[in-house]
């Protein structure tokens, strides 16, 4: 109603949403609450009682599964405290999820994985605005862990038995100011080059869309300089 002008009134919006399958509203408060019009829509016959029941049922089913209607002593979530935050068990699970969600598009000549036993004496270069900037590693609505648990690509690679050089090339994902000399100097004698590029919430987030899918700023130029 407010953004797309698909509907004209809160009542019309409630009816359209309910009939489309929506059962939960992120409202602006009680005064601007679309679903407060549901009783009127029901009385006018714009929605049926069965539709209302169908929308409500999964909400209360979920709340029951979460134990919201049980005595606190019966709810396992009630026993959780701050010791569960960043616990080894949870961090190991996060690591497993990250590993299993990686998408490897190409692996020419079996470059990956980098094996520690093959790296002594080798030179690694890690470059790009995402190589050593913890602020850009988290997506929209993502919680940011304690700094000691954050491993940037540079920090992770420096745990390997290799000589690691680093150059950001540009300090921010927008990459408006780019130092080609910095990147070329870092990759010049490297046996392995890791280029870390992307967007991050500084470039795109909720309510902040991009008009094209190209790498921001000089990032493509940085990539070309690093691998030529």
Automatic annotation (TrEMBL):
Q: Which UniProt keywords apply?
A: Glycosidase, Hydrolase
Instruction: Classify the source by domain of life.
Output: Eukaryota
Q: Which residues cross the membrane?
A: none
Listed GO molecular functions? alpha-L-arabinofuranosidase activity; xylan 1,4-beta-xylosidase activity
Q: Does the keyword Glycosyltransferase apply?
A: no
Q: Which GO terms describe its biological process?
A: arabinan catabolic process; xylan catabolic process
Every Glycoside hydrolase family 3 C-terminal domain range? 103-226
Name-wise, this protein is: XYL2 arabinofuranosidase
